[in-house]
Amino acid sequence: DVTVATASGDESAHIWKVTIGSQTVLSSDDDDEDKAADSGPCESETTQQQSSEGIRIKSPLMRLTGHTGVVIGCDWLAGGSQLCTASWDRTANIYDVERGEVLNILSGHEMELNHCSAHPSQKLVVTSSKDSTFRLWDFRETIQSVAVFQGHQESVSSVAFSSGDRIVSGSDDRTVKVWDLRNMRSAISTIRLSSAANRLSVSRSHGVVAIPLDNRHVRIYDLAGNRLPRVPNRRCHSRMVSCAAWADDHPQVNLLTCGFDRGVAGWKVTLAKE
User: Using CA atoms, how far apart are residues 221 and 190, in angstroms rounded to an integer?
Assistant: First the structure.
């Protein structure tokens, strides 16, 4: 069994128990509508598989409440007993998922939050906001601390930790920036793009970032800001690509992307070990 957390427009987050098997797929109640949607043909560099009805899971283990706006993202803290949520109510919450209680309310952003991400091994959380900043919250000491970073000109769409004490932030200002946790006065590299960056993903196995763009493309760069040429770069989605997620341990499909065309694409990206 796998425990899954989801964020929702109903101002809550949910915890689910999922049994993973050869035929188990999560699907929504909108299957009939989705089948009629034209997600557009993917070109040859994507891995396509036949869609499945899957198994609908309708009853969560727990519903986490406390926000007064859309919950736009969530992430597990190291250890798996706590969850961070980001909301359009301008706050992030830290929950104890065993008791369903709010442990901390992270306030200070001046506009809606877009994303939150937790460090894989330390008690650190980053939140990004439409106020053009992202914040680093440190829970390693008894008294929590927060640092505010103003490296972007427009809404910060997402922020993520990578290996080697680095943070990657993406923005509507058409840049992605890489920061060193040990000295965050300025970015150590800046990736300039032709379109706004959406919810990016960093591969911790390979030290590269997948960037979904408003212009329907997905771009992959290393953390020094170099674009990688030997990756799928043909357009697959017919509308903006909203999110990317690496699946480093999967043997066939190691990058997933989804878009406003209501389609999910699986990519096989061949990369050298970091």
Answer: 11
